[in-house]
Amino acid sequence: MAENIDPFIILGISKNADATALQDAYQKLKKSLEPSAKAGHPGATAQLEQAAQAYEQLADPVRRKQALRDFGSNSNTGLAMRLVPSKRTVEQLTEPQVIYLLIEVVPRARPGTKFQKRDAGLNLSLVLDYSNSMRGIRLDRVKVAATEIIEQLSERDYLSVVGFNDSADVIIPATTVTDKRALASRARMMRARGGTEIYQGLAAGFKEVHKNLDPSRVNHIILLTDGNTYGDEHKCYELAERAADVGISISALGLGSEWNDKLLDKIASATGGSSGFIKSANSVVSFLNTQVQKLSNIFAERVKMSLAPEPGIELEMAFKLSPSPQPLSEDAAIYQLGGIQFERSIGVLYQLQIPANFPLGRQKVARVVLTGDIMGEHRTQTAVGDVYIDVSSQPEADDPPDKILDALGKLTLYRMQERTQQALEDGDVGKATQQLENFATRLMEVGQSELAEQAFTEVKRLKKTQQLSKEAKKTLKYQTRLLIDNEN
């Protein structure tokens, strides 16, 4: 799905700018971004490419007229981007220092207008594991969930259902949801058999969604599995990257305790989807229904963000806080953030390292570019923002905003359980035990008593058996992650 980015906003010029103003704006932006791109910042490279494409588009009279038609009108609704550094003023130090940048993306309406809620049309594929391990109540509940999802969709929605084991079977080819009884009957035909190869199911689901690919819809795959896949992990990730390139997001859900959480996290993060843990078969129906309801209440889809730090500034961490909290790759050129619902927000926290002896005065830290498809309006919105801080030899006290402090506190919890897992992978059981005890104590201190008790139980197990239960690993990871999102 080709990007449709507002070239006027990318270059920071008015719609009636002449050729000289266009050339000057492009050269100025190019000069600003090139040092960061040469320093190896992928976000700066991506923004340089956007700038070049914008210049080429506006330098061509025919394409410029098309851009004016596409981006010339104003809308009552859109996306607003808030850029909040942890400190507006920092002290000039002889050693590197860390600052945090919180970026919030929120739906907005012009003063005096109201949001006109409209359900986003779905182009959805359910990719469902029906290997031997799903036999019995697990598959029974998946069938119920599929039939309930069919019931809540409408004639304007496209749906396909793919069952997979060590091969894939397109149970319902992509179709509009008209004859719900017939579709539900076909969904109930799944029978458990065979092994688990996730790539087979994802590839078939991707093909079905691609048939009706449409920027005015939510193009999405919901993957549900209860088992590990072997030998095709790299192919799964490559397919996720292809899906992201054409505007298809993937929610990757694991049922039970035997699935590969790192793989599902990676698939979801690459596409702007979410990953989740379904603890028991009894939760399948409500979990899947909730996923689809969220997709149907999308205000903007395919929200993407790039961050270009200034030369000398290093990006050390990126984390999506809401919705569906998950770590993001520091090496990504463009972050796929997925969809944003009405009356919700997307929050991303970046950790940046400022170099020693950063120059005094007002200094630019980073440039941020945001794009998103506004559902129901057939348009892509573009927003650009620069982040500045003041560097002083004698700064006044400047406490971080409460939102950043709250996010960092919850991220600390998440990292504590991550360090426990890493210590176990490294074979250091003693270190893992100490980390887990600290984690459990901290959970109790912040009022998460139920989760803390489970962590203390696992401390005892770890001391006795030198390993954690598989279920506990996923419970501690995903429940701690959910704490990060204040709106859950």
The third-level CATH topology of the largest domain is Immunoglobulin-like
Cα shape: globular
Average pLDDT works out at 93
How would you classify the helix and strand content by structural class?
A: alpha/beta
Q: Kindly, what is the distance between the CA atoms of the first and last residues, rounded to a whole number of angstroms?
A: 31 Å
Given the structure, what is the number of helices? Answer: 14
Fraction of residues in H or I helices: 40-55%
What is the string of SSEs from the N terminus onward?
A: HHHHEEEEHEEHHEHEHEHEEEEEEEHHHH
Number of domains: 3
Give the class-level CATH name of the largest domain: Mainly Beta
Q: What's the main sheet like?
A: 6 strands, mixed
What is the CA-based Rg, rounded?
Answer: 24 Å
* Poorly predicted ranges: none
Counted beta strands:
16
CATH architectural arrangement of the largest domain: Sandwich
Description:
This protein has 488 residues and is an alpha/beta fold. The chain is built from 14 helices and 16 strands. A hairpin with a 3-residue loop joins strand 11 and strand 12. The longest helix has 24 residues.
SSE inventory with pairings:
Layout: H1 7-11, H2 19-38, H3 42-59, H4 61-71, E1 77-85, E2 89-91, E3 97-109, E4 122-129, H5 137-152, E5 158-164, E6 168-176, H6 180-187, H7 198-211, E7 218-225, H8 233-246, E8 249-255, H9 261-271, E9 275-278, H10 284-296, E10 298-309, E11 314-322, E12 326-328, E13 335-341, E14 346-354, E15 361-374, E16 379-392, H11 402-425, H12 429-445, H13 449-465, H14 470-483
Parallel strand pairs: 2-16, 4-5, 4-7, 7-8, 8-9
Antiparallel strand pairs: 1-3, 3-14, 5-6, 10-13, 10-15, 11-12, 11-14, 15-16
Helix pairs in contact: 2-3, 5-6, 5-10, 7-8, 8-9, 11-12, 11-14, 12-13, 13-14
